[in-house]
Amino acid sequence: MILTHFKQAWQLLRQNKLFSTIYIVGTALAIASTTIFALIYYIRLAPVYPEYKRNQIYSASFVTQTNKDNNKYSSPSFSYDIMNKLFYNLENAEVVSGYIEEPGLQLIHIPNQEKYYEIIKRSSDPAYFKILDFEFLAGAPFTQADFDAGVHKLVISDRAAEKMFSSPEEAIGKTVSLDFSDYEVCGVFREGSAINQFSFVQAIAPYTAGKLYKQAYSPIEGWLSAIILTDNPDGVKAEMDDFCRRFAAENDLLEINFLNQPYSATFRALAASPYEEIDIMAILRFNLLILLTLLIVPALNLSGMIAGRMDIRHNELSIRKSFGATRGRLLSQVLWENLFLTIIGGIFGLVLTWLILSSDAVAIFANIGSQRQYMNSAIDIRLTTDMLFAPAVFVFAFLVCVILNILSALIPAWSALRKPIVKSLK
Fold this sequence. Notes:
The chain is an alpha+beta fold. It is built from 16 helices and 14 strands.
């Protein structure tokens, strides 16, 4: 029966090429726009490389201080003393890593060569690689012994290795110059996407290899930030608040505050500023309204087209009713015909989505994370495989479009089939 409906749908497609083309194109555009919209939030919130533990990853990166004159100011990062006394001793955290976000693009080159390369660099401890699941293609990350000794080891991304040494394997054991110091490349990892500002990096060294981590402008101000892997963020926040109370008691008229930290992946994705409080449900409702607008407008257009087509097919359907075809059977045929066209439109929509993303992903994701920072730099923005090939996103977009398309066909078809046979045959 279903095969028969599809054969009839194919014949109608060939007979009504203009209607079928407009229907398929409209469905393809609706699915493409919905898929891209969903992908933007999928990339922000779903577990993608190397943030596979994203639902457990929290961060803390700034601290505010109020002095005895009641003057308040904030530091975008905190001191090693705070890192050592608080974050490395969190009882409600599974793993804690400290890192230093190097400002801007860093210059790296091979000694005795004149060519320089621009990279994004961070300095961290070994726990960084336990929280962010970087895939190592050659070598291995620096060890705890390397970190404790402040050894000048460096791990770099595969794209950086290919630019400087032609392959990841060739980079292992080589010496590069960075920050006026020589580093030995000990590992090469698969580079992620610059869209994910939180985890995007091209070179990582032990922060003990430099002197920056020791520099502190006050008891709290420094260069370090923390990544926390935990299933109990409320417990971590309670420990941070307790530390603030103890700090105030030990330092007369000096108070510190971590505000709403630690931050979740959802907060980092949706908040415009670390200082603001966000209403996640309000943001979701607003975006749901945008999504419905993207879908309902083409659905209404398709409903109008189908209503016009049903006027043309009244005689055909009425003749079939006069020969015994039930209203349910005829309605089923109309719905299967539209489902057939929707499936074709869905395939074209998927192809269109990939073509759009591969041709101009930079413009589409311009408002995500570090994309703004590196838009005009030497950093090549790319989408990783697990970002582009997200079956759940396409299935969601396709099912939503199928439901709306069925509804857009159901209403005019049901209205047409309710008319008496005699009136339809006039």
